[in-house]
Amino acid sequence: MEYVLETKNINKHFYKPKDFHVLKDISFGVKVGEFASIMGKSGSGKSTLLYILSTMDTEYTGELYLNHELVTGKPHQDFSRIRNKHIGFVFQFHYLLSEFSVLENVMLPAKKLNEKSHADIERDAMQKLEMLKIDYLANQRASRISGGEKQRVAIARALINNPIILMGDEPTGNLDSHNADNVFNIFKKLKEEEGLSLLIVTHDEDFAKRTDRIIQMEDGRIIP
Ligand SMILES: Nc1ncnc2c1ncn2[C@@H]1O[C@H](COP(=O)(O)OP(=O)(O)OP(=O)(O)O)[C@@H](O)[C@H]1O
């Protein structure tokens, strides 16, 4: 089985205000090209898990593999590069820089990676905007566009470095049903046409039901 992401026995505690075993023996994988969702009650540990999987949180025991490579325990300076290059992340809130144009926002993670020329990055960013059918917004200030458009720009930004997996923490949580549907269809298209792997935390059952697999979390565990 070809996995883009795999975990082995991930455990995490929060020690303040008192010891709390938040993630318990999490072992699972996301297959290449799979569109998986994570559901579970509030407080079951979904966001905590996603922050570990996206290498934003390194305080845990167990193992995380991306593209079969063990990333757990790497030197700290490696993580921002791994994250920037291999993982696209979409939050509930878009976190766009409001004074920058849409195009500049999408270009930023590629600028940070510093592997391509400005012209190449601009071309790639325009291609992502075209793919998401928002290229007409390229020169608009991010503060001037609608909520649904902002989330599509955030997706374009998450894709700019051609990640191996796109993760989302309730990316449709702030959207009305029309815009949420739009985002689902974009994710589905990314899977079907680009072969992208996706792992999306959601509270929306209709959204989850339409993904390839629902991973259920309860009390810090994945329900088998
Ligand atoms: N920094 C922290 N310190 C202590 N406890 C924390 C911390 N962050 C989260 N928790 C606790 O860990 C548990 C899991 O939180 P988490 O945010 O992962 O849940 P979730 O399933 O994503 O919930 P929601 O659906 O409400 O976003 C909760 O009980 C939360 O209160």
UniProtKB/TrEMBL annotation:
Organism domain of life: Bacteria
CDD domains membership: ABC_MJ0796_LolCDE_FtsE
Gene Ontology molecular function: ATP binding
Transport in keyword set: yes
Keyword hit for Translocase: yes
Keywords: ATP-binding, Nucleotide-binding, Translocase, Transport
Membrane-spanning segments: none
Ranges for domain ABC transporter: 5-223
SUPFAM superfamilies with a match to the protein in the record: P-loop containing nucleoside triphosphate hydrolases
Family: Belongs to the ABC transporter superfamily.
PANTHER family listed in its UniProt record: ALPHA-D-RIBOSE 1-METHYLPHOSPHONATE 5-TRIPHOSPHATE SYNTHASE SUBUNIT PHNL, LIPOPROTEIN-RELEASING SYSTEM ATP-BINDING PROTEIN LOLD
This protein's name: ABC transporter ATP-binding protein
